[in-house]
Amino acid sequence: MEDQSLLSEETISNKIYFIRGQKVMLDRDLALLYGIETKRLKEQVKRNVIRFPEDFMFELTKKEFENWRSQFATSNSEKMGLRYLPMAFTEHGVLMLSSVLKSDKAIQTNIQIMRIFTKVRQMLLDTTEIKVDILQIQKKLENHDKNIELVFSYLDELTEKKEDECERVKIGYKK
């Protein structure tokens, strides 16, 4: 059970990618984390394909795979002799893997992965909240700028009126 200490948050979070607008992990990365061959992971998924609908797991297209490879400058796929396009697992798909991979290491790894997904989701929520706060501050500043301009224009008008006024004749008793 001490295997969980071997996987750092950074190790797991570096293997979470954003593909098709979703946070996913690739089959080869998951297999590496679980300590099994990618081939074995794919076999288990294919045996239990009913557990992995499209929103849990999908196969990358050639274009997506090439884009992913170029983004991360990983030509390892050529060295690894890839014959099949990688499978991408969403958070729910990774969770479902725990029901088909039953080793203790797989269970502990899944627990860690779920914790990381939760942290990533929280970080995204936090940054969204910060963005909203910044937008509100920007709106306030824009309003302040407009108000300051308005005050200065009123002051300009008042000073112009004062300059245009000629001295008034005083009414009353003279001494």
Automatic annotation (TrEMBL):
It comes from the Bacteria. Pfam families: ORF6N. InterPro entries: KilA-N_DNA-bd_domain. Residues 14-100 form the KilA-N DNA-binding domain. One of its GO terms (molecular function) is DNA binding. Keywords: DNA-binding. This is DNA-binding protein. It comes from Flavobacterium hibernum.
